[in-house]
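Cross-posted from the bioinformatics board.
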Amino acid sequence: MEGLRLCLVCLTAGSGVPVYFRGRGVGRQLPFSVIGSLNGVHMFGHSQDVLLSSTCTENVRVLWKTFHDSISLIVISSEEDASDLYLHRLMDNVFHAMVLVIGLDELVNIKNVERLKKDLRACYPMIDSLLLASERIGDLVQCVDCVMAYDTPVLQECLDAFSRAAASDFGCLVAQGKVVVATEKWWRLAAQEVMLLTWLVASLAPHSSRDYPVYLPHGSPTIPHRLLTFQLVPGVHVCMLCGPTPSLHKVETELVEVFWKPLLEPVKACLRVQRRSFPASIPLHQGVLGLLLIKRDQNRLLFTVQAQSVEKPPRDGVELSLPERRSILRSFYTLAVTQYFSPERSDERTLPLLEEFQAGYSHRASECYIASSSHKCYGLQMEQCQLFLLFQPMVPTFSLRRIANETLRTFKDAPF
Amino acid sequence: MEERRSRGPADGGENESRERESSSSSFSSSDDLEPEWFDSVQKNGELFYLELSEGEEEALLPVNSPEAPSVNHVRFQENEAEVMPASQRKEGKKVEPTLKKLSRILKKPQKHVGKKGPTSILKQQSSPKTGGTVQQRYKDVCIYVNPNRLSSSGEGEPAELLQTLVGIIHQPSWSSRQQGRQGGQNGNLKYTNEEKLVVHGLVPGSSAIKSTQIIIGDALIAVNDVDVSSENIERVLSCIPGPMQVKLTFETPMVEAEISMKQKEKQVQSNMNNLARLLLGEDNSDLQLAIQEMPHIAMYLNLKLDSDTSKEEQEILYQYPISEASRKLKSVRGIFLTLCDMLHNVTGGHVISSSLIVSGKLVHVAYWKESDKLLLIGLPAEQVPLFQLKNMISDVARTLKVMYSSLDSAFCQVENVPRLDHFFSLLFQRALQPARFNPTASPSTQHYDACSALLLDSLLGVRWLAVPEDIKMEIDTALSDLEAADFAELSEDYFNMRRLYMMLGSCFFYKGYLISSHLPKDDLVDIALYCRHYCLLPLAAEQRIGQLVIWREVFPQCHRQPFGASGAEGYREPEARYFLLIVGLKYFMLPVLLEAGGCTAKAIGNPGPDCIYVDQVKATLLQLEGLDVTIEEQLGGPSSPCLSCVDWFLPSSRDKLESFTNTKIATFPTSKSALFMDASSSLRTRRPSPSRNSGGSDNGSEGPGDGAGLSPHSTPVLERKYGRRESQGSGDSEGSGGSGSLFKITKKRHTLPNPFNLGSLKKNLSEKETEELYNIIKLTSGSENTLFHYLSLETVQGIYICPTHKEVAQLSGSIHPQLIKNFHRCCLSIRSVFQQTLYEKKMNYLDADTSSELKKTDSGLGPVKEHGVLFECCPGNWTDQKKSPPKMTYWVVGRLFLEPQPQEFYVCFHDSVTEVAVELAFKLSYGIAL
């Protein structure tokens, strides 16, 4: 277990045959006996009509989850900020990533485990990117990381026209794993699907163009669609979902050049806002280090831990590193949504796998904050909007609320 | 030594009489002087003697036979042989054995098992069809008798015991006449040689009349299943040794309206006291039934199994409850055993908890591993959040270790099983249905208890009530005198031998509030945990305790540690044994921790409670009894920070204008916010309640030291207010001003709706304008008291401070109870964040030796010092369709002070409070404790 910070084991639910093993951090694979016992206790519970969901020790969390009675996932994490919420969502994402790539049928009706193992290799890049502590937060929030580009209207117009020309309703412009613009229909896909599609595009090896069959986990888990991706500049892809037509060749040769060539500069500009996720023209309070803005109704989020366009050099060397900032914002988000804010959507789970602590409140919690010696955080929830801010410690606690409300107003009408 | 212990102790507890007794009858062992609790001492020396006060005892009566006693025991005379099982017993039996048997029976607590209930009910239903004959039937009535009261009331005629003790008037001459008449009606009666004890009247105020089940015309035929007649009744009754419940069996000639009877019983049952029932370990199957649906379990498992013996369930050393509720969890114990073993091997850390889904419900299971045994507690997440469960299991483990020295000795001894069953039944009742626990309390108290239990039960501390200095001094002096233990009998030269015990310390509770403690923190927490698990503190909150004596050997945590591990160098904890003695009287409770074997005589075997010590403690309690008025006053008065009710801030359309006028009146330039002002003034002093102020003449009754240091410049109102023990100089004038104005505001709110303003405003302003105006003024004035609730936890002393039940009860409103519930739930969550901070700090501290101190974890929330949550609420019944309901927002903020000692402070206040006030309130919380 040494060095291994997070590992994921996939087994067939019925027979307990290991299908694959992925991990984060350096370390060797867990001994088979351990995996066997972990799976054994879960299966034993199942036979007794008791569903074992999670166990935590002083330093490790273990979670079990079975999907469609055919695939079991076990995740073992020794990271302190790995909450039950995150690990549950991770397993959910991993399974649906598998569905996205090979389809539900193959996962539910396993005829040949060896064959399945081979098929699932295609998922490894994507699963690894989900396991990796990434700069995005969509896996935890279950929304799509977005980027607010300089020329959003122009790009939007171009994308809409491009999609129409390709006879597809689903088009999207992705810059380094974050969505710049997408067609209206694209946003109407399930939040998890949009998130996974973006993740998939980012995790695939760079190609100038690609025709990739995908099964939408919620929309059409058994019938594949074609995902066409075209690299406009390195790091920026335009993607579209379509049926049997048009062919990849036709779109690539006839449409991409025509529509996107004139917009090369705005497309390149998308990469420049990548770090901050929104243009420098948007003002932000000096003390804000990180920002997470979630528009729940649109399945979008804006996430950055480098909120200042020009950051002053740290004064006394106690500055938080970027991974620390990400970790704090992730933890703070988790704390707020598991303990205080009413759940975003109730249809998500049928079984109460997570403790619904906030269900016990008689009044609605709308804002919360924490203050520690190294940072401060403020979170607030409006009807369809959540904002979480990470502050420098010298920002006075009483002003957090005002800054948060101002920030929210700033972004209220911002197009992203 | 032995003689001394067996020496007859004095009864009662009256100091003088005790001393007189002891000097005269030192070595004469006389049974009649045994204290009431003497027979309850168990073989291992433990004692749990609870005698409820009389009122409570009477209210508790139906408990003994939970399925409506009189109905159960109705038996119809279908054949004569069955009629009088009593009379069939040999009449020629000697009286003496009967009496001995009686006194034996009487001494036992009664346990009725109404097995015959259903059949007899069936028979009864068929009875109307049998015709118009008057059916003879029998009923059992349990009543409470107290011979002590009898003796105190003077020399009653011995022949009148039936009247004086029970309250039944029987006139022999009437009886013969009436019996003759009855005999005519029911010729089947076999009483011929003895006169029947027909009830001719009931003494007003007696137990008999209070039971409401004894009716004139009934005939008493048995007392605790011993036949009685006019011949032997007085002898039988004279055998009643002490205050207790007796079962009286009556023969009743009339067919009563059954329904009304049943209803009556239901009534009595509904307000009976679940808590006391649980405590006494009586049949509580209906309480069990209520939580049966919820999966819950406590198990003690053996991790090391002999492979030779393949006995079924051999790894289960203990389990509770043995019911359907726990079956599923029990059946998957293999999971827990495997995980505990394997994960420990793989990760090197102990397993803390598991979450499972059992019958569609999320259930958390907490682990507590000790050597090769594993304690498990499983409870549904809905009732017990994981964070609380983790605290719970560590509390349980600690309590059990205090009681039995180790988990092994607690669970692995067969004779402990019923005790543990009792322990865990209390635990689960407390955890799963806190609201049902205290049905006699007022609804608001009940609500407060229920929702605060979630949080407060996980705190390692006791609820503290600050009392004025002189009262505190009086108590402290009394406790010190007790602890010094140099009274005649306890002094070593009195008997010229080493004393049995040394008193390590004591503490003093009033209605469950700690008033004074002379114990180190760890010992106090140990005792508090014991009291909490046995619900002693809520018990004392109502006046339930007639007399409580608890004695048991304990193994306090800090004394349990191996030598050298604790304390300064050169000092060793003596190799001693420790005993806990708790004596309760009315609202008071006085736990004392005794040490045997240090500088005192070594304890041999399992010594029972020593009468001298019990009596001394009792004497101390009696000495302090007079203070209850003063302490009650403290309880009743507004809390140190004065509280406000959230409903006042919600303008319902009716009183909006009223509050508007009030806020307008209440503009004070000096007070930025009442939260701060109030805190500043009251943290150092306590005020009597506003309602008392109007009297103005109550200063005289408040003991010495009244009116010592009046601040010369305070207003008359304030003079009354601070007249009691005001000691501050002029520096406090602003603070007083603030709270004084507060007082006016709240009073005005209640009493002075200004009709003139109301009318004119209504005329002149449209509603919307009014609202706007209201909002503006409300936002700017800020002089209202905006503190709703608070909690301060002091870990050094092991105490916490929060508003008293009375205060909370005063703030009645529709939203306020919800706020209190919210506050406690939110604090639980805030506290879990703080716990993490403390844990990490501890870890860093431990790591500091080995690795560089700057090694910081790059994950998690980091060391959180302050955490706040903003809640919104609207009035519940908002009928106005046109407008959205008005919103009221309030903060729940917790702050953790790490220096100098960990201390936690939680407040709940209105949104409008300025940051300066909040900051000052936190700063001042340092002064709140003592």
